[in-house]
Structures are given as C-alpha cells and as structure tokens.
Design goal:
Shape: globular
Structural class: alpha+beta
Strand order of the largest sheet: 8-5-4-7-2-1-9
Oligomer: single chain
Order of helices and strands: HEEEEEEEHEHHHHHHHHHE
Number of strands: 9
Distance between the termini: 29 Å
Mean pLDDT: 84
Amino acid sequence: MQEEPLHIHTIQSFLVLETQKFYQKIIRENGISHFYSFTIDNENKIPFLEDGCSNIVFEYSSSNMNSYFLGNTDSRNTLELKKNCEYFGVRFQPGANPFFFDQDVKDLMDQKIDLKDFCIMKNLPEKMSAQNTFTNRMCTFMDEYRKWLNSTSTGQKQLFFQMINLIVKRDGLIRISELIEKTGYSSRYINVLFDRYLGCSAKQFCKNVKMHTLINDLNRTKFNSLLDFSIKYNFYDQSHFIHSFKEFTGFSPKEYIEKINEKSYTSHVFTEE
C-alpha cells in the first residue's frame, strides 16, 4: 500500500501566539510535514507540546547562524528562543526523519543537538547560513535533503505509517481495538512498532493527535461551550476535558481561549502558496 500524505495539526500554537511574522508551507511529502519561520523580539521560553514530530531549526541572528535538531518530546516541554533572532524550521511527520534513520528514536528523545555534530549533514549549515528568504531556505534545504533521502522502507515501517495515517485521518478518535481489527496484529506488536519508531505507545499518540486537533479547532472556530468540545472529542465529561487540556498544554481551556482571543490567532499565521 502506498504511503499517503498526512498533516497532523502540529503547528505548535504557542509559536504562533508568542512570536511575530509566522509563516508556514505545508509539504506533506518525503517525511516532511511543513516548513515554518518566525521572528522573536525578546528572549522567551515557549511551551512546546508533545506531538511525535522531530524538527530541524535554523536560528539566524545579525552575526551568525546556529542550527540544531530537536528530537521528539514525550511530555510538555519548553523551547528557548533568543532575542532579535529569525527562525526557520522543518517539521517532520510523526516517526519520520530520514536523516537519522539509523538512530534509535529514544536516544534522540527530548534532545537538542547541534547539526555540526552530525557529519552526514556537514554541508547543510553552511549552505543554509547564506540564505535570507523563506523560499530560498526551503529550496536549499530540499536540495540537500534529497541527496541524503533514505528511499528504502521496511515492511514494518510501512505498517507503522499506515496506522499513523489512519490515526491522523480520524483526528486521534480511534480505539486500539480498531487498529488491531484493521491490521490483524496484536496490541503488543502494535505498541512495539510505535515504541521503536515514535518512542511512545499507540494510545499516547492517539491522545496527542486528538489534543492538537482540538487545539487547532479552538484556534480557528468560534467557541461555543466547553461541553460542546468535551462531547465532540469523546471525553467522559466536561471535567475530564478541562483536566486533560490543562495537563497537555499547561493552561486551562478558559485561559487558552483568552490568550487566542487577545492575540487574534488566525491573523498571526501566513501561509506560503
């Protein structure tokens, strides 16, 4: 079965709310979800939510450029941003990062690693440092990326991506019993694959997708009531929804809604065509 494009709602909302000039270009191919860029005026630590995706980030200041790899995070974390810098990032699809196909995902979990430490990418930082526009940075990255793209795919990984696709298409609202029924494999084997390629259980990834979809819904639609969201996203009740939301984001739904209303979330995102 051919791998289908997918795009999980992993824009990381706090990057939009706490930065300026946020651009994104959705790619959905060769393991990449999207490219993004933003600027920051003041040094800040921004909430970075668990989403199963790794990133490569380029940090441009007036004097130099730093570049680093951000591994998957298995819990709510923070991203430290420097004053008066411009950032360009590459978000990979869940469980995908062909640059590091020979690395154990758990060894990279929650890691921030200078790209210079990876000899396979020795030409990329220098080439990226010479680029000063979103489009040029994106094209330069893709040129280098294709040189190193690992085109082989094992049967196990094909099965893993089929399950990832199904979970994302269903907005995370799927039970493990349904994955078992559709694949014919046991819950133990399914979780072995998720642990190997993503570093978390299938159930945890379903929760991550559901929460990011819910957050995206809050960002872009008119809010009616907490009860509506608790029903739509299959929470036991409103209290369960509030507790889960705060556990995932660090904010209550009310606090988060006040934040996006204050910042006018949708006006902060510019999409590259």
